[in-house]
Amino acid sequence: MIADLPTSVEIREVGPRDGLQNEETIPVAERIALIDALSATGLTAIEAASFVHPKAIPPMAGSAEVMKGITRVPGVRYRALVPNERGALDALECDADELEVVMSISETHNRKNINMTPDESVQQIIELTALAHQEDTPVEAILSTAFGCAYEGDIPPTRVAQYARRVLDSGGVDGLSFGDTSGMATPRVVVELLDALEEVEIDVSLIGLHFHNTRNTGLANILVAMQRGVARFDAAIGGLGGCPYSPGATGNVATEDVVHMVEDLGATTGIELESLIRCGQLAEQLVGRQLPAQVLRSGPRTRTVDA
Ligand code: ZN
Predict the structure, then answer these.
(1) What is the model's pTM?
(2) DSSP labels for 60-106?
């Protein structure tokens, strides 16, 4: 048996935002239908929308309608990504349960993605967190390119840790998520980052990890992180996702595959796998193609066939 794993793990669904923003535009009603279906699986957190300018990311246009159209299930936090003050005000107006503010540790990626230096982004995180806290809405800082950058290559884990410390101390954010934007995380890189975060005394309960499965190490990354006590991971239904500003980046780790592995390891997620698989089928219908989630095809390992 694999020792010292968390007994419960939160899997946060990011398909309706991180996934769908890289697809052809899906009608608002279908985005709502997907979120409502996901809300019935036992998930406790769903990244539902992004309040970016619709010209910047057309598939996320109509995010206010999405937030207002979904059927809120008690116990589910509906989260929204906000790029600036306008977006934060719009998200708060739509009663987002939690705001996410992104910055890249890679200066090149940060400039391409949000046209700021990392230091300007820290300042922005401070301001947006203050704004959200006035409404008692928690904020998570997403530190992207935390495991490497498609433009800059390796990112020193000590630099990631320093920014993490800064946004916690001066920004007062409520949580941290480390994004593998370009799919460069491997178990070795994950452990090196977790070592650096431990070095600056960041409590593991504040850490969430966000992996893309670009090089097929997503589940291995999650397993080594669980062995270090991390108990919060993002995943996208079907393995939807990518990043328009990170060449070659593919989808997120698939929620079906992550839930299947985590539950098999004996950690509870509260998520019902068969209903999640039906959400994966719905996601495939919406995007009109087969998605990479493997448990979506094979079902759980306990599924038997007639002899
Ligand atoms: Zn992502």
Answers:
(1) 0.95
(2) GTTHHHHHHHS-PPTT-EEEEE-SSHHHHHHHHHTT-SEEEEEEESS
